[in-house]
Each structure stands twice: as C-alpha cells, then as structure tokens.
Description:
Elements: H1 3-18, H2 25-32, H3 36-42, H4 46-56, H5 61-67, H6 69-72, H7 78-101, H8 107-120, H9 125-140, H10 150-167, H11 176-192
Amino acid sequence: MSTRDQMLDAAAHVMRTRGLARATTKEIARAAGFSEAALYKHFRDKTDLFLAVLSERAPSSLTTLLGGLNDRVGQGSVSETLEEVAREAIRFYNHNFPMAASIFSEPQLLAAHRETMRERGVGPQHVTEVLADYLAAERKLGRIRPDADPRAAAGLLLGACFQRGFLSHFVDQQGDDDFAGDLVRTLVSGLVEAPRERG
Length: 199
C-alpha cells in the first residue's frame, strides 16, 4: 500500500471517529505512522485531505451511478433508476454524515472548505444538478409530466435521502431499501401521473 493510501485510510478513520473539525493533520499523520511534514507532501491542507477521503474512501457507487445517468436517459424505467439513486444516496449520506457534520462547528474550516470546493468545481450541489439534468432529459422525451420541475424533484429525492442518513445516527432504522422504494413510488406518482381534477 502506498504512503498516500495509508494516509487516506488513517484520515478516514480519524475524521469519522473524531469529526472533521477535531481531526488534526498531526493526529492523522501519527495514526498513519508518518510525520506531519510527510502528510503535506501529498495533501495541501486538511480540506484537501478531506476531499480526497470523500472521493476515494467514501462509498463510490453513488458517484459512479451519477456519472452514468446520461446514458440511462430513455432506457429502462425512470422509477428503477431513481430507486437505485435513492439507495446509493442513503448509503452515501449515512456513511459520511458523522465525518462531515462537524465542519459546521468551525467557521474558518467551513469557509476554507467552501473555497476549495469552489476552486475545484465540486460540491454537494452537483449531485442535485446531475439528477435534475437526468429528469429534465426524461421530461423532454415525454417519460415524465411536462409540468414536472426536475430540480424540485431532485431536491425532494435527495433531501429525503439525506434526512434518512442523518436520522440513522439517532434512531435505529431498518429497511433502507424499502424506504428508497416507497420514496420513489411516492415521488414518481407526481412526476408521471396527471393530477386528478376535483369534482
């Protein structure tokens, strides 16, 4: 295993057990068995390290799935695709919430993190944008209602998945796959079926 990989493994462990704000580069380097100076040969700062952990040590299925959504437009069923997105999003948020949540307790760290994400053109908003683009393309093909709002639908789906991941750290929840299916069925009924007229 390379030095960088050992550092990423140590960083992922320390950030998840102590929270991002309380995880220092010195502690991460020590956990990896290297000096802090060695850590800085591979990573610019803690934010750079955190982004590397998110992209390389978090469940990658959501990223892979979102990267291939364009190829799914017009293929299979919209419901099946959204259910797969929901399952992977719940898994991703559940896994990363303990590590990422503490960033909000440190304004300077949050500001640095935002700036680094802006520089790299990454961030959590891109997940919503990619899903909204997929839904917009499906709407263009007539596979969802013409008056459906793709951005709102993407926000509703991912927001519910985020809440599910958040709540899993407070209450014992079972059946994430069942929840994903119920969530998508409820959402798709508004995307596909015409509203009933009140008589």
